[in-house]
Amino acid sequence: MRIKIAMLMIGLVMGFANVFARNIQSDTTTTSEEKIEVKKTQWFESIQMRGYAQLRYNGLLETNPDLQCAQCDRSWGGGTNGFFFRRIRLIFYGQVHEKVYFYIQPDLASGGNNFAQIRDAYFDLGLDDKQEFRLRIGQSKVPFGFENLQSSQNRIPLDRHDGLNSAVANERDIGVMFYYAPSEIRKRFNYLVSSGLKGSGDYGVFGFGVYNGQTANMPELNDNMHVVTRLTYPFQLKSGQFIEGSLQGYTGDFVIQRNQVTDIDQTEFKEYRYGASFVMYPQPFGIQAEYNRGRGPEFNPETMDVEDAPLEGGYVMANYYWKRGKDLFIPFTRYHFYQGGKKHELDATRHRVKELEIGVEWQPHKNFELVGMYTISDRTFENSLNPNNRQVGSLLRLQAQVNF
Questions:
Q1: Which residue has the higher pLDDT, 138 or 12?
Q2: Sequence spans of domains, the chain
Q3: What are 260's strand-pairing partners?
Q4: Partners of residue 253 on adjacent β-strands
């Protein structure tokens, strides 16, 4: 009897096992007519974030407290040499569609007053499958000059030089840019940044755009658009050395800010600039140089009026990459000059700048950088409020940068 019951139980178990096995097979096997459901990636799953912050101190070895550069660093001179957040940037970006890329960058320490302001807010629209042709729509950098396009996160000297940076305050404006670059060159632009060689980023081999002209976060004050174009190419020699050359220019009408107590007879001025850039990337020795000329508004202290005047400026910099264990040291020296007006400042302030910088950047790892830079400067900056103002001096400047 017990044997019969045991045999019956074994039979029932084997029967259930066969049924279960058939069910599993039917659930996992699909015919050619059945569709396999694939989960689609949602657009918000492609969003990424990165950023950096810079803390400065400019109060060491200062010989002249009246020597300053408002466009460079508002904590330099004027009795305001305390600790200073130069930048706190958070960058949100992502490929939300195979042909749509977005990039938004606010600065949480804008102007040194620790308030937020948009720096970049644009999207790239790919015009072909490889995205070799694309439109950049929104607020972005104006493609004029290598150092202007180079991120402050990558630039070695603490501030951009006056010569080309005086063309576009904060380097940005609202408009539409067209960029073209072959896929292999786009990869090269990316490598020149990701490898630590301090590249400028991907702004195409050829760029052309129209933009407001009053610069970023400023309202447009006339009906005339600025036009800019740039041609650049990063060559790679057989030795592996990278060399990049660029030509660029722009033109447009700019409305200046006048002192209301002076005789205001003109506020809109025609301006144009053209220039060239040369970069031999440091492998390990590097050279970087830029120069531009043009015309624009400039305050004349003799007539106490703003006039159309010629301008020119540029720089040359030498640097060296020295790897010692895990530490990277980048000693550098840069000389730059500028003579012309700064259209963004009151009365298109007249500037005469000669400046020598000697410094070193230390990177113990990719998330932290420390820069020490000694500046020897001769600056004249004159407008209707201060028509006779030449300042000469020197100071030691320090910056700690965290990358995340």
A1: 138
A2: 42-403
A3: none
A4: 270
* Residue 39: predicted pLDDT: 58
Report the DSSP beta bridge partners of residue 274.
249, 293
Global pTM exceeds 0.85: yes
DSSP string over 256-287: PP--TTS-----EEEEEEEEEEEEE--SSEEE
Strand partners, 396: 60, 374
Tell me the pLDDT tens digit for each residue of 156-194. Answer: 999 999 999 999 999 999 999 999 999 999 999 999 999
DSSP character string of 20-44 = HHHHHHHHH---TTSPPP-PPPPGG
| 197 burial level (CB within 10 Å; 0-12, 13-18, 19+) | middle
Q: Is 193 helix (H, G, I), strand (E, B) or coil?
A: helix
Is the pLDDT at 24 greater than 50? The verdict is no
Cα dihedral 295/297/302/305 (nearest 10): 150
Q: Give the model's pLDDT for residue 91.
A: 97
Position 77 scores a pLDDT of 84
Q: Which CA distances in Å does 403 have to 51, 189, 331, 368, 400?
A: 6, 20, 20, 6, 10
Q: 237 φ, ψ to 5°?
A: -80, 165
- Rounded CA-CA distance 189/194 in Å is 9
Domain at 42-403: CATH code: 2.40.160.10
Q: How far apart are CA 209 and CA 228, in angstroms?
A: 5
Tell me, what's the pLDDT at 235?
97
Identify residue 192 by its one-letter amino acid code: L
